[in-house]
Amino acid sequence: MGVPPLIYRLKNDFQELSRLMDAVEQYSLIQRLDSRTTYALKLAVEEILTNTILYGCESDRAHEIEVRVTVEDDELILEITDDARPFNPLRIPAPAMAMAGGVESESMETPASLGLFLVREVMDDLEYRPQPHGNMLVMRKRLGRSPSMSRS
Amino acid sequence: MQTETSKVDSIDVVAISGRLDPAAAIELKKVFTPLLSAGASKLVVDMAAVEYIGSAGLRELFFAAKSLERAGGKLVCCSLQPEVQRIFDIAGFSIPYQVFATRDEAVKGL
Questions:
Q1: What pLDDT score was predicted for residue A110?
Q2: Which of B55, B59, B63 best tests the A interface by mutation, with the highest count of A CBs <10 A?
Q3: pLDDT at position A122, please?
Q4: If I label B43, which of A11, A26, A67, A95 is the partner at 20 to 30 A Cα–Cα?
Q5: Residue A121 falls inside a structural domain
Q6: ipTM of the complex, rounded to two decimals
Q7: A99–B contact, CB cutoff 8 A
Q8: CATH of the domain at A102
């Protein structure tokens, strides 16, 4: 029997985000994800939801966000669906990198840019699917472990 | 997240533990601000017990480092856990801010 997916619905509220992070941590343990994959998953959930709550949601009304995490065919799949205003994070340009290899100061002034850049780097694949009343972002990361280890 | 501030000679040391998530980044700013306004010029950020940092935490380190630089000072980090080091590398933080393996090396390096 495989492990059922983690499905978590929350409002655009940072306190709920903190509880979601605990659930993500728990799911990583159950799935026996390695430390790098667990970090990537937590970073992607936190950065994408922070952007959605801060920039995608009008603050005067509650929004619904659904996070779904599953492991299928040696791949971690993270899907985040919201009813916020249309926003394709893949169209945000990567931060400008300075000669010394550092992120330039103006990139730091636009918070969405660095967070999305990190998510793109730690996940293998990101796909944006516009929804009739919101957005869906599907992120994938290959686990690189044998199929026999992903069961149990 | 928790922080502990101490001093080694003229060098301020801030040891951080736990998760440096967006909420913790706001708290970290409150730790840095009085140090910077009190004229701190050399700051070691000991991250031995930091298990996670996201873009909000990186941003606070960046702004503190820039502020010190403008005042002729310097911020260095030390004792990064491997996954935190990886995020520093991806963001290109390792070169401009200097990362040392241990707190002693960081203090000597300032």
A1: 61
A2: B55
A3: 96
A4: A95
A5: yes
A6: 0.90
A7: no
A8: 3.30.565.10
Are A96 and A104 in contact by the 8 Å Cβ rule? The answer is yes
Residue type for position A99: M
Q: Which residues pair with A140 in a beta bridge?
A: A77, A125
Asked if A134 has any chain B CB less than 8 Å from its own CB, the reply is no
B93 touches chain A (CB under 8 A): yes
The CATH number that domain B2-109 falls under is: 3.30.750.24
Instruction: Locate A151 and state its tokens.
Output: 């069961």
- What span, in angstroms and rounded, lies between the C-alpha atoms of A104 and A120? 18
For residues B9-34, give the mean pLDDT: 95
Helix (H) or strand (E) holding A126: strand A125-131
Note whether B54 contacts A118, CB cutoff 8 Å.
yes
pLDDT value of residue A121: 94
Token pair in block for residue A53: 């709550």
Nearest to A111 among B59, B87, B96 (CB): B59
B2 touches chain A (CB under 8 A): no
What total number of domains does chain A contain? 1
Show residues of chain B in contact with A115, CB under 8 Å. 54-56
Kindly tell me if the per-residue pLDDT of A89 is higher than 90. no
Q: Would A67 be classed as within a structural domain?
A: yes
Q: A46–B21: do the CB atoms touch at under 8 Å?
A: yes
**Which residue of A lies nearest to B55 if distances are taken between CA atoms?**
A115
For residue A1, is it within any domain?
no
Determine, yes or no, domain membership for A135.
Answer: yes
**Whole domain around residue A49: which residue ranges?**
6-150
**Residue B60: which of B12, B22, B3, B110 has the closest Cα?**
B22
